[in-house]
Amino acid sequence: MKALFEAKLDNLKSELITNINSKVQTLKLELTEGISEETRRVNGVLTTIQLMQSRLDTLEQQRSILQENVLPDQSTANHGNPLHDPNLSLTASGIQVTVNENLIQKAQELVNSLGEEVKSQVTVTDAIRLHSRYNDRPPILKFSVGSLDQKVLLLRNKPQLRFIQQYKHVQVRSSKSRI
User: Fold this and answer.
1) Terminus-to-terminus CA distance in the chain, angstroms?
2) N or C: which end of the chain has fewer CB within 10 A?
3) Are 144 and 82 in contact (CB under 8 A)?
4) Helices (H) and strands (E) in the chain, counts
5) Where is 177: in which H helix or E strand?
């Protein structure tokens, strides 16, 4: 009986070890497959990142070449026409249109109406009329001054316009447009 019991126990032990070994082999195989799949995905992501990095490097090189060769410096670009320089240009809306008007003179008269300090320090260098969006309003007068300090002085004194009958409805603003 003891021999039979030990034989059954040995048989059960060998079956258990075989069963455990097969389960371990199955788990190893599943883990190997999972790891290889994740390795492929990581390699794909790595390849994509390297491709994007090379594209970014190419774009940065092209941008620097464009900036150096094609795109002029803003101070150089604005040097030719002060009306294109946002640091020097202003707009005035509500100034009536007259026949054969001298726009620089009109802008200078607006500046002169702001008082002696502004009149003596601010000079108008150029002026144009922008296209009117509305038929019932005069087109905007865009003008430029000699320096940023002159522009700041003019903008600080613009509230005085509401006390002058001729310019009561005129609004002066800093120009942000390029034309």
Assistant:
1) 110
2) N
3) yes
4) 5, 4
5) none
Q: Position of tokens 């905007």?
A: 140
Phi then psi for residue 146, to 5 deg, are: -70, -35
Segments making up each domain of the chain, as ranges: 1-71, 78-174
C-alpha to C-alpha distances, 65 to 38, 61, 117, 140, 142, nearest whole angstrom: 40, 6, 47, 38, 34
Evaluate whether 153 touches 72 at the Cβ level (below 8 Å): no
Which CATH architecture describes the domain 78-174? 2-Layer Sandwich (3.30)
Q: How many residues does the chain have?
A: 179
pTM (global) more than 0.85: no
Q: What is the pLDDT of residue 4?
A: 87
Structure confidence at residue 37 (pLDDT):
95
Q: Provide the pLDDT for residue 71.
A: 44
